[in-house]
C-alpha cells in the first residue's frame, strides 16, 4: 500500500501512484534487472584522445600575457601550426592572455599551464563571424562560443590554469536581465525551429542578442576537457553537441549569471564526467538532445553518459535531464556525487539532486536514469523531481515517455520532500524505484501523479520505512 507521503491533490482529487499489478507496472517490473552492468562496458568505450609529444607556445606567435594585448591572432596561428604539423600541445604559459574566439582543430590540445589565464574579450564582435551552433537546443548561426570546434577529431582543453569568461564585465547579463533584448531573438529562433526554416537562414550574431556558450564542440569525436578552472561563462559552460567519446574530468566551474549550466552533453554519446566541481547558477550536469520540432528533426539522442565523483552546488538540478530532450535520452548513470558539500558550498543550494524535465511540446523519451551512492545535505526542494509537464503553458501534443528512474544507496540530510513525480494523464511516468536509501530531516510530503510502477524498498524517511 502507498504510504501517507504519496498523495497529490490534483484536479480536485487525490491521485495515487500505481503500486499494485497493472500492465504498466508489470512492464516496469519486467525491466527490473540491474542496469549497472552496462556501465563498465560504456566506460571501456570512452578513451581520452592522446597527442604527439610536440609543443607550440603561444608567446612564440606574439601572445603577451599582460591582460590587455589582444592575443586572438597568436592563438589562431599557434593552433594552425600545431595542426599542420600533425598535432600536439599548444601551450599557454603563466600570465593573463586576452583573446576573442579560439577555434580548435584536429589533433590539437590547448594546454593552460598553472598560473596561466585565458581571459575572454567582453566585446561581442570578438566572437564574429558567426558559426554553426545549437542555441538552447535549436540549430542556427550565432556568435562563436569562446572555445569552439566543429567537425574535428582529437581535441582537448587541459591544464591547471583558468578560463575566465569575464561575463560580468561584458554585456551578456544586460541581454537577458530585466526584459533585455535576448527574449525577442529567443522567440524568433524557436519559431524558426518549429516552422522548419532552413538552418542557413537562421542567422543571428551581429545586431542580435543570443549569448554564446563558453566551450562547445559540434560534431566532434574524441574530446577531452581536463583540470581547468572555468570562471563566469556567458551561458552554458561545457557543451558537447552531436559528439562522441567525450571525457570531462577534474574541472571546476564557477558561474553566477543566469542559465549557466556546468556541463551539457547534447545529442552526444559515450560521455564520461568525472571528479568535477560545479558551482552554477543553473543545473550542474544537464543531459540534452535538442528542442521541440528542431530537436526531433535532427533526431539524435544522448546516450551512455556516466557521471562520477562530482560535487554539485548548482542552483537547480544536480544530475538533470532536459528540458531540451526532443531527440531522446537513454542510459544516464551517476554515482558517488556530493550535494551541497561543506567543502564546496557554492553560491546556491541544489534544489533537486535529480531533476528530469519533459513535456508534450518536447516529445520523445527518457529511458534509464540511474543514481546511486549520492550523499549530501540541505536540499532546497525534493530529492527527485520528475516533471513531465515542464513549461506546460507552451502546449504540445507529442507523445512523451519517461521511464526507469532509479536511486539506490543514497543518504541525504534535509529536503522539502523525497519525491515529486508529475506524470501526465495521457502519458504516465513509469518505473520509479528507490532502494536502500536514508533521508533525514524531510519537512514535507511526497507528491505523486500519474505514475505507474513506483517501488520503494528499504527506504527510511526520518527513521520510518516506506
From TrEMBL:
<dbReference type="InterPro" id="IPR011050">
    <property type="entry name" value="Pectin_lyase_fold/virulence"/>
</dbReference>
<keyword id="KW-0732">Signal</keyword>
<keyword id="KW-0326">Glycosidase</keyword>
<dbReference type="InterPro" id="IPR012334">
    <property type="entry name" value="Pectin_lyas_fold"/>
</dbReference>
<protein>
    <submittedName>
        <fullName>Glycoside hydrolase family 28 protein</fullName>
    </submittedName>
</protein>
<comment type="similarity">
    <text>Belongs to the glycosyl hydrolase 28 family.</text>
</comment>
<dbReference type="InterPro" id="IPR006626">
    <property type="entry name" value="PbH1"/>
</dbReference>
<dbReference type="GO" id="GO:0005975">
    <property type="term" value="P:carbohydrate metabolic process"/>
</dbReference>
<dbReference type="GO" id="GO:0004650">
    <property type="term" value="F:polygalacturonase activity"/>
</dbReference>
<dbReference type="Pfam" id="PF00295">
    <property type="entry name" value="Glyco_hydro_28"/>
</dbReference>
<dbReference type="InterPro" id="IPR000743">
    <property type="entry name" value="Glyco_hydro_28"/>
</dbReference>
<keyword id="KW-0378">Hydrolase</keyword>
<dbReference type="InterPro" id="IPR006311">
    <property type="entry name" value="TAT_signal"/>
</dbReference>
<dbReference type="InterPro" id="IPR051801">
    <property type="entry name" value="GH28_Enzymes"/>
</dbReference>
<feature type="signal peptide">
    <location>
        <begin position="1"/>
        <end position="28"/>
    </location>
</feature>
